[in-house]
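Bug report (template v2)

What were you trying to do?
Predict the complex of my protein with iron/sulfur cluster.

What happened?
Run completed; filing so the output is reviewed.

Input:
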Amino acid sequence: MALAGDLLTRVRELNCARPIDAPPALTGGHSGPTVCIARVYHGSLVDGPGRRSVVQFQGCPIRCPGCYVPETHALTGGMTVPIQSVVCDLLSPAGEPRDGVTVLGGEPFGQVEPLLELLTELKARGVHVTVYTGYTVEALASRSRTAFRAALDLIDLLIDGPYVEAQSDRAGQWRGSRNQRLIEHPGQLVAHESQRRQPVRLLAEEAQRWMK
Ligand code: SF4
């Protein structure tokens, strides 16, 4: 910069196809169940297959060291909005073209009932849904609340596991660290495990092999 600064345009932060600053422009006029979110943005090329519209949930109890989005950790932050407003904003013409919707965090499963409601609305419209979680699929499958299994049933692609800073290099597409797994149709995986009476862990590893 010292040598060539006067020849260059003004320095501007870039963020790998994910907007740095995108306050949600939520459609008004809705009521009903609510969800606490940090923001909605469109046109992401890094949060799942193709071009995605994204909703970022607010609140994460996991607190991975080195997390990229510490502003989403506080359970008291963000904004509480009707789920129908989030659906309208995610599917708004402003976000086209899109290949699907991604739900990330914060921790989406930290608000499992609102997550289930949102997934139900999106799948009723035939939308491909990717969900990021800091929990493993094994941990989610072991939860007794029925909403966890019901939510897993509606997800097309789950990217699971916490962010591990020491494993962040060469993490592969859509992942923050190498421990995270891409699991297609996690609900089918869990159902398969129940039938075979095998640990979900083994089947998750099989799923990883299929994805390679
Ligand atoms: S689970 Fe996700 S949002 Fe939560 S601390 Fe880890 S990387 Fe950050």
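What did the reviewer find?
Strands lie at 34-44, 52-57, 79-82, 100-104, 129-132, 157-160, 181-184. The mean pLDDT is 88.
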